[in-house]
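Dear colleague,

Thank you for sharing your sequence with our group. We've completed the structure prediction you requested, and as agreed, I am returning the results in plain text so they can be pasted directly into your records. Please verify that the sequence below matches your submission; if there's any discrepancy, let me know and we will rerun it promptly.
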Amino acid sequence: MIPLSINDSYGGLKIDGRCQVIDIYGKPIPGLFAGGEASGGGRQHGIGRACVTGYIAGTQAAAEPAT
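Please find the predicted structure tokens below.
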């Protein structure tokens, strides 16, 4: 059994509604998604944010065409 560890942060990478990482010019970086404590913005944090953004990032990344 692997123990569960939860980290908490209000910082992180800037993401859009698809959890795609945004560059310094405000444009999404193709193929780069972030979720959980790696994603910044918003006022919510913890396991709820990790589950939601992780799910969104995973489904969006899986839907991306292979390069």
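Summary note from our side: Residues 28 and 65 are 16 Å apart (CA to CA).

Kind regards,
the structure core
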